[in-house]
Every structure is written in structure tokens, then in C-alpha cells.
Amino acid sequence: MKKALIFLHKWLGIVLALFFLMWFVSGVVLYFVPFPSLTPVERLQALPPLQLPSGCCLTADEAARRAGLRFSEARLGMAGAEPVWRLLAHERQGAAPFHWRTLDARSGTLRPPLADAEAAAVAEAFSGRRAQHVERLERDQWTVPQGLDPYRPLVKVALTGEDGLELYVSPDAAEVVRDTRRAERSWNWVGAVPHWIYPTVLRQFPAAWHHVVVWLSIPATLLALSGVVLGLWQLFLNRSRWIPYRKFWLRWHHIAGLVAGIFTLTWICSGLLSMNPFGVFSARGATADERVRWAGAPAEARLDPAEALRQANRQGLAARELELLHVAGQPWYRLQSAEGQLLVRAGMRDPGLAIPALPGATIQASLAALRPEAGAPAVRRIDSYDDLYYAREAADPNTRHTRPLPVWRTDWADGVAVFADSASARILLRSDASGRWQRVLYHGLHSLDFAPLLARPWLRHALVLGFSLLGIGLCVTSCVIAWRALVPSRRRQAPAAAAAGALRPQQRSESAPAARPHRARKAQ
């Protein structure tokens, strides 16, 4: 068995040593420089204020009827000086997939996609800079995630400035959907792209990319596991010596494996679990039935959006976008700016008072009705993060990982927990028994985002960086050993060949006397 483990570990190491080195080095970069994205705060800060004259706008339902669309999400904003509805919609029953479309909010007319020059103007207004180069594309390295599919195609606009800012504009949605800068693009080439095996040529095919990562991670996990087993075997079962190797690189590979092997195994295994191989974890979002129950019976908004905006302005909110929401059969307008938000009832023509969050009774009733088959749940409001709902950088209000507080937590007897935000009127997280395992085995082990470390960011940073450096050291020894196992075989053959060549003259001299009598007899 030991010989089989050594054989497995050796040849898996020869094949995967460079991959492990790549994952450790790129993981350090990715930890400090995340993949480019446009955060909600950044987007809202760059949007122009809503300007809606009284009676100017149709409701989202009326605009969609006039355009012959069905939609699942609706946002009212500005496109230049004109108010527009942006609908996540399709043209007919059963059509797929949903796609963002832009409608004139006054007439319900479907607006044509932006030309390249118009997209450049949107980027200039968003950034306050001048466009230098415009390119239309379906996807590139920084827009490969599937979350951008409803916005495609895209127009990439390079803008003036020393930071190399590039904005991606959706011609159909008439808005900016992603921003990147030269520094984060450069770092991501040695960070997220190699760490996630994220080249565009592969990532544009989600199923193929998923299988490549999973079937590369499985043998990598076996490599790390076999190394840990062999290291412990030598440590506790080898009576001759604690370190059985005399050669420099083998000796230090064994020592580095004893030090770094365990967290190397946990990181590669948790990386495998991040892909949810074979569906071992359930989805963390609400199910389709739960989303329907949360929204309640269909009800159209009747309130003029301009009246809702007026209510928000009276309370000092300079809203930049209005979003239509449905909770418990009631339509609501959510008016947002980068500084805050307000909610206005939209089911009546007369506007009510703008409020910062839904009433607690509405939230509790909606949550209790999510899973009628599971019995009565326990519903409570939480004002701090807990074991399932947490933020990695809670002290930094601008971080992309920040989650709102307070929220409502609902627990059922079968272990399902749902978290909802009364301010945004949305379900934020759903977790069942598999989600709790995912919390520990993937999020916890891969990111070290356990509660004691989240409360001490400096300690978490130090542990991630320290473990990564030890892992890099282990991988360097692996790469050297793998190289010597493959390439130096010719060098070892050279001395043997030289020795064989040195023997040939002696062999010829020893055979010569025997040959002479034969030739002499032949001459006679």
C-alpha cells in the first residue's frame, strides 16, 4: 500500500506541481485584488438624479403592455435627459432568456439599442471623462461571468486618464454595467484569471469550464491527501529516522509537507467544493416557489412614479433610480441613491408616506408564509452578523462584501433558515443543512472567514498570507523534484555512457590476441 501511495503521489505531483504553485501565488494576489466589478454604490454615485415632471411617466406594467413585453424586474432611471424604464423582459410567453430592454417612460415605446457613439456618450456622462476608443463585443476577459448575459452585447469604452479606466455599456439597457482599471486588470492576469482557470476561450463555455475545474481539482485533492498520509506515515510509523531522505530537495519537501500539508489539502479540497461538484450543496437563494410566495398574488402598481419621487424628495432623498418590488401581494417603489433609500406604496394612486423599510408585520407574515408545508417558523430580527449571515470586511462600509443590517431571520424545524431585508424588500439568503456544511467546508476553509477571524481582520490577513507563503515553499520543492524526475535522467545516463565508452578500448585490446592466430591460420 505504501508503494502504491508513493507511486500515486509521485506522478500526480509531476503532473500537477506547477498548477499548485500557480494556485498559491495567484491566490495571494486574488485575496488583495478581486476580480473587476461595478459595485451598487459605485453605480448609484455615477447616475444622474431622477427628474420626473408630474404625470410624466407610465407605470412599468402599462409601459410593458404597450411594448408587448413580459418582465420580472423593472427599474426607472434617466437616459440622458429622458426618463426610461429598464425591464428584464422577453417578448412572448415562454421565450427565453430574459434580457434587459429600455422603454420610453412617457410613451412605452421600445427604444432601439444604442449605437457605438451613443454608448460612448453614456460612458462619458457616467465617468466625467472623454472617450478615446470604442469597441463592440460579445464578451472579453473582464466580462465573461454569466451574470452579464442579460446585458449582451456590450460596448467597451476606453476613457482618458492615467488609470486606464474602461467602461462597458449595454446598448440594450443603455447603462454602464462594468468598470475596470489598468492596475486591477494587470494584477488579475496573475490573480483571478489563473486561479480560477478563467481564460475567455474556456470561460465562455460555462459547462466545459465547470468540468475542467472539477476534474482538475479531484486529482489535485488526491495528490494533497496522499502527501499528508505519507508524511504522517513517515512521522509515526518509520522507526529508522524521522526524516528518511538525505537529498536536499526531497528532505525539504518532506519537511515543508509536514508543515504546510494540512492546509494545502483543506484549500484544494474547499476549492473543489466551490464548484459544487455533482450538486453536493443546494442553492443559497430562495426557490422558485418561495419567490412566488414572497411576492404574493400579482398586483399592478397604480401610483405615478413622479408622485413617489416627490415624496422621497420631501424627506431629503435625491433619488437616482426607482425600482418596482412586490411583497405579500403589494407593489412598492424603492427609491435609491448612494446615500440611502426609501419605500413608497405603489398600489394606490394617492401616494403614502415614504418609509425607510417595510413594516415588521409585513415582513414577518411574508416570511412565515414562505414554506407552509414546514410548519410555523421562528422569526426574529437580528442586528448583528451570525454564523450564516456575515460580512468579511464589516468594518469597511465601502467593501463589496458588506451586507445590510438589521435583517430578519426565519428558522424552520427542518433546519432551513431564510434571511430577508426589510429595507430592500428582498430575500438575501437561504440556507439548509447542506448550506451549513458549505459555510464551513467551502467558505470557512477556503477564505478563513470564521467569526473569530472576521472580528480580527489583521489576524486573518496574516494567517492567509503566512499559510500561502508556506504553501509556495512546498510547491517550489515539488516543482524542483518533478523537474529532476523528468529531465535529469539524461544527465544520469551521461556518466554511464562515458564509463561504457571507456571500457570499449580495453575490450578490443583483450580480444585482439585471440584474433591474430585465426588470421595467421587463415594465411597459411
Secondary structure topology:
Layout: H1 2-32, H2 40-46, H3 60-67, E1 70-79, E2 82-90, E3 99-104, H4 116-127, E4 131-137, E5 154-159, E6 166-170, E7 175-180, H5 182-189, H6 192-195, H7 200-203, H8 206-237, H9 248-273, H10 288-295, H11 305-314, E8 321-327, E9 330-336, E10 341-345, H12 360-368, E11 378-382, E12 407-411, E13 417-421, E14 426-431, H13 433-447, H14 451-454, H15 457-486, H16 489-523
Antiparallel strand pairs: 1-2, 1-8, 2-3, 4-5, 5-6, 6-7, 8-9, 9-10, 11-12, 12-13, 13-14
Helix pairs in contact: 1-8, 1-15, 8-9, 9-13, 9-15
Can you offer a commentary on this structure?
- With 524 residues, this protein is of the alpha+beta class.
- Helix content is 46%, strand content 17%.
- It has 16 helices and 14 strands.
- Strands 3-2-1-8-9-10 form a six-stranded antiparallel β-sheet.
- Helix 8 (206-237) crosses helix 9 (248-273), helix 9 runs antiparallel to helix 13 and helix 9 crosses helix 15.
The count of β-strands is 14
Q: Please provide the ordered H/E string of secondary-structure elements.
A: HHHEEEHEEEEHHHHHHHEEEHEEEEHHHH
> So what's the overall shape?
globular
Mean pLDDT: 89
What is Rg? 32 Å
As residue ranges, the low-confidence spans are 394-401, 503-524
Question: How far is the first residue's CA from the last residue's CA?
Answer: 69 Å
Largest sheet: 6 strands, antiparallel
How much β-strand is present in the residues? 15-25%
Task: Quickly describe the structure.
This protein is an alpha+beta fold. The chain has helices at residues 2-32, 40-46, 60-67, 116-127, 182-189, 192-195, 200-203, 206-237, 248-273, 288-295, 305-314, 360-368, 433-447, 451-454, 457-486, 489-523, and strands at residues 70-79, 82-90, 99-104, 131-137, 154-159, 166-170, 175-180, 321-327, 330-336, 341-345, 378-382, 407-411, 417-421, 426-431.
